[in-house]
Amino acid sequence: MDNKFINELLFKYHMVHSTRNHDIFTKEPFYLEDKYHNIFNETSTKINNLVNRIIEGINGEFNDLVPYIPEFPYKEEILALKNPLAPLLWTRYDGFVKDDGSGVFYSELNYDKPCAQREIMVMESLVNSKENINIGFIEKLKNNFYSICNDYFKDKDKLTIALLSSSSRAEETHLMMLFKELFQNENFKFVICNNTNFQYIDNSIYSFEKKIDVILRLYPTEYFKEVSCFSEMLRLFENGKLLLLNDPRVIIGQCKNLYSYLWKLVKEKDSRLSESEVDVINKSLPYTELLNIDNIQKAVEDKDRWVIKPVYGRYSIDVFIGELYSQEEWKQCIDYVIEALKSGKSFILQKFCKIREDMAPYSNGIFTKRVEAFANLGIFISIKDYIGTCVRFNPSYLTEEENTWITPILNKKECFKTINTNIDYRKFTSSLIRFGFCGSYCRISEYIKTSPLVLNKSKYEELKSLTNEIALIFKKVQSFVGDNISIYKDAFNLEYLEKVIKNSNTEELCLLGRMDWILDTNGVWKVLEINSETPAGICETMYISEELLKEVKISNLQNINSEFKEKVLKQVNKMIDEYSKVKRIEKIAIVGSLYYEDWYTINTIKNILSELNGITITLGNIYDLKVSEKGEVSLYGEKVDAIFRYYPLDWLEYKETEDLARLKYALESNNVISLNNTSSIISQNKMFFALIYELLKFNFFNEKEALLIEKHIPYTTLEASEMRTNDFVVKPILSREGKGITLSRNIINIDEFNEGYIFQEYIFSETSDNRYPVFGTYLCGTEFAGIYTRVGTEITDVNCMYTPTYVEMEDGEI
Fold first, then answer.
1. What b/e string do you get for 796-805 counting C-beta neighbours within 10 Å, with b at 16 or more?
2. What 3-state DSSP class applies to 113?
3. Distance between CA atoms of 627 and 624, rounded to whole angstroms?
């Protein structure tokens, strides 16, 4: 992380300096789905309205709550206050997305002294975007503070505010320094105090010889016995002479045993709760009861179901989550809690609720990566309205200061979703053998994910359109390189194939290619590369997506690949007509290696091409091709006019057989035509994207093309020193299936990648079930033809899973 930002944190935002100053904040944002943002907004305000109603009725309608509030100094005096409840300046609910995606829940309500305001302010300033859900947080907080104070002291223009925090809590004291700078104006003057800095003089409270009108506190109510003159403060507050913020009665909301009381009302169907309030308690507050010697046996017998928390606990101290402990460790926790109960400390027993694990951005100050982490979402309410959200990540369920980190948090609409099914993987794939599909029998790991992805229709249409537009740019660049191959052959490592490329016989980008796209965390499509030579997934695209759709049985899903076959045939016919100007094509051999995936792929290609009129199709192993000294090519004794080559053109350089060595010369002399054009090896080459960015410097592209490139193609270069970020990937220029690709954060010596590599900006992508989906869009020439999606790790390799992808037939958001 840059020093400018660190200095801003330390001095502008008064962040306490620590050895973790580089990894507390990560600039890369976390995206919270729109639906969860709305749920948090709605449920938190409902619960807050209920809590306020209960606090206001503590001496009347809800006086039966009093026994649920453990003793603390000044309890009777605070609960007996007769003045109206002061408006709430701030509270923070610790919220989480449920693991099963069914909704959200709140582990606790921080009414008394909520922190993390600074983190939201930093997040607001980092991303100036309407998607930043914290835009306006600072102004809302300031205006609410002014409004509360001015309404309380209608006859006073100028007010003096004491900012009370504990001198032992450096973070909170520094936060008060930030509030002083934030709130101070000509009518509001501030004094930073600790608990011993007050005096009672002439029926008023003073601090540092200044008469105090308002005490804004980050100080626990149950420790007010440590605050000098507190009895007098309470009396002045009750008589409207002093404003305490937050009102000390909010300890009722802070008290975790409030959960026990609310659940008692729910179980007894108490008429004091409305149906809406019962509903929000059921959905958002885990079941809770006061822990005692009688019910602790529940936790002993079923540790994975329960969490034990102190009623007035903070900072995750003495919080015990049964699932995180072994039986022996849990026994030690129980013994500790029993002793604490005997000494008078109060605990609650709360039902354990699983938290969704996210792929969160994390920076160590140099590199940023995605790691599995749990998001604690701090939902802030001021007066009665939601005003912002802080996200704190932690590798474990507990949010602990030494491990947590913060990111900006942005709101997003779902671009795609996963439909969870119970379709048996093995039963489903066994039926696909009739199509020649053997992928599921040749892999130890699962090959097909039977929970498909569904693209938002507008995002699908955008991807389809971008595929066509970017394909035209690729065609333009490929033709340019092909016309100048004698200049670019060395850079592309294609010296051996110069004449073959010159003899391509077509200006088409490809016969059948596939662009690989990811959706970045900003919702922007990014194309990582194009496989214009030997795109995988053809069998899956032709058959499996249709077969799974029959099993899913959701009527409004559309098979994106329904026209795939027709588009391939159309492109083949178009290119055969073009090739016929140099050679009549009557017999085509479809050839590839005997690698299992290649074999079922070329079987599928044969099924498609068998519908060509007047053309004979044969299938075979490329190593069985025979090439005579005259350059005539045959397969299993039969002469062929053209080959569909499911075999990388650059592999001919290896000359694995004499016939393959001679095949190069047969292609150069048009003794045989490569149906998938030889010029497509240019765009297949990873150097292709680096050249695009070089050509961008020389105005090779028009304005629209340049904008498309800069927005949708990751920055790519030949020199690591030219990278605009520390987060990049290194790719061999002729690699396939993720082989040889290295992430910058894993590089020890960058000099190892001096030749034969490109450097490409790392794109932080949307995830699905914490996996990385890559949407492969098929091209026939420059026209979109279908989608082949895989999910896997950051670098998609041979161990990824094919995931059928559909689109909703009706327009609108998912």
1. beeebbbbbb
2. coil
3. 10
Q: What pLDDT is recorded for position 814? A: 47
- Name the token pair of 711: 């927005």
As given in the structure block, the two tokens for residue 59 are 């001496």
What is the residue type of 306?
W
Give the closest residue to 706 by CA, choosing from 697, 698, 696, 715: 696
Q: Where are the domains of the chain?
A: 3-256+356-412, 434-714+763-797
Cis amide leading into 503 (omega within 30) = no
Q: Note whether 358 and 115 are within 8 A (CB).
A: no
Contact 396, 324 (CB under 8 A): yes
One-letter identity of residue 50: L
Nearest to 44 by CA among 384, 524, 446, 457: 384
Cα-flanking dihedrals φ and ψ of residue 25, to 5°? -115, 140
Angle at 530 between CA 528 and CA 533, to 5 degrees: 155
Pairing mode, strands 159-165 and 188-193:
parallel
Mean local confidence (pLDDT), 81-94? 96
Which two tokens mark 122?
Answer: 């930093």
Confidence of residue 810 (pLDDT cuts 50, 70, 90): low
Which of the residue ranges 135-139, 561-565, 615-619, 725-729 would you say has the lowest mean pLDDT? 725-729
Show the tokens assigned to 355: 């938290």
| pTM metric for this prediction | 0.80
Any idea what the Cα angle at residue 493 is, between residues 487 and 498, rounded to 5°? 55
CA separation for the pair 349, 291 (Å, rounded): 5
Tell me the fold of 434-714+763-797. Answer: Rossmann fold (3.40.50)
Nearest to 216 by CA among 138, 320, 144, 120: 144
Report residue 257 as tokens: 């045993």
* Helices vs. strands in the chain: H and E counts, helices first: 24, 39
Residue 803 near residue 789 (C-beta atoms within 8 A): yes
> Of 85-94, 307-316, 724-733, which one has max mean pLDDT?
85-94
For 443, phi and psi rounded to 5 degrees?
Answer: -120, 140
* DSSP 8-class letter at 134: T
Angle between helices 34-56 and 257-267 (to 10 degrees): 90
Between CA 563 and CA 542 the distance in angstroms is 9
Q: Give the rounded percent of residues in the chain with a pLDDT score beyond 90.
A: 75
Instruction: Give the bridge partners for 264, in sequence order.
Output: none
What mean pLDDT value characterizes the chain? 92
Question: DSSP per residue over 352-381, as a string?
Answer: --PBPEEEEEEE-SS-EEEEEEEEEEEEEE
Q: If you compute the radius of gyration of the chain from its CA atoms, what whole number of angstroms results? A: 33
Overall residue count recorded for the chain in this entry: 814
Tokens 């030749």 appear where? 755
Supply the pLDDT for residue 792.
85
Separation between Cα atoms, residue 533 and residue 494, nearest integer Å: 14
What tokens were used for 710?
């800069």
pLDDT tens column, 239-289: 999 999 999 999 999 999 999 999 999 999 999 999 999 999 999 999 999
**Residue 31: HSE in the Cβ half-sphere, 13 Å Cα cutoff:** 20
Bond from prior residue into 7 cis (ω within 30 degrees of 0): no
Least confident of 299-308, 309-318, 461-470, 714-723: 309-318
Please answer whether residues 353 and 96 qualify as being in contact, where contact means their C-beta atoms are separated by less than 8 angstroms.
yes
Q: Region 134-150: what's the mean pLDDT?
A: 96
Q: Tokens 């100028």 appear where?
A: 158
pLDDT digits 0-9 by tens, 707-732? 999 999 999 999 999 998 889 999 98
- CA neighbor of 749 nearest in space, from 773, 771, 730: 730
699 φ/ψ sector (left φ>0, alpha ψ -120 to 50, else beta) = left
Model pLDDT, residue 11: 79
Express each pLDDT in 388-423 by its tens digit: 999 999 998 887 777 889 999 998 878 888 888 888
Segment 611-620, tens digit of pLDDT = 999 999 999 9
